[in-house]
Amino acid sequence: MELPAQAIPARLTNMCATGDTWPVQATRRFTQLVAHHVVMARVTSVSNVVSVCLCDTSGDDDVHINDVLIRNGLAKKCRDHSVSRTASTYVRTVCGTLLRMVFDVLMVFV
Fold it and tell me: What is the pLDDT along the chain (110 residues), one digit of tens a residue?
């Protein structure tokens, strides 16, 4: 059985770009952290965009994706409601594909 690709607008909880736009390095690091990994998503809020905390639990120590990006200086903490339209657009377009991959992997186990 093969399911069609599905996606919902989502963003990483309480995070935003360090400048006006997301740097390419942030996209690369995010990809390294989630591609080919089983990642747990904890939904923290739902409105027109779903806010999630992502965690890779496959190793001995959990890797909290949101925290890694902030610690690496690729994102900064901000309240979800203060996120600019640019950040939301970034998550939908750039991270949307990665989140679809994560959800597709999760759907296999359902």
Answer: 777 777 788 889 999 889 888 889 998 999 999 888 888 888 888 878 888 899 998 889 999 999 999 999 999 998 875 444 444 454 455 455 566 665 555 555 44
- Is 3 a member of any domain? no
List the domain range (segments joined by +) for residue 28.
10-108
User: Could you tell me the CA-to-CA distances from 91 to 52, 58, 109 in Å, in that order?
Assistant: 11, 24, 25
Evaluate whether residue 23 is within a structural domain.
Answer: yes
Query: Distance between CA atoms of 66 and 13, rounded to whole angstroms?
Result: 7
Report how far residue 39's alpha carbon sits from residue 75's, in angstroms, rounded to the nearest whole number.
Answer: 19
Query: What pTM does this model have?
Result: 0.65
Both tokens assigned to 32: 């390294």
**How many domains is the chain partitioned into structurally?**
1
| CATH number of the structural domain spanning residue 80 | 2.40.50.90
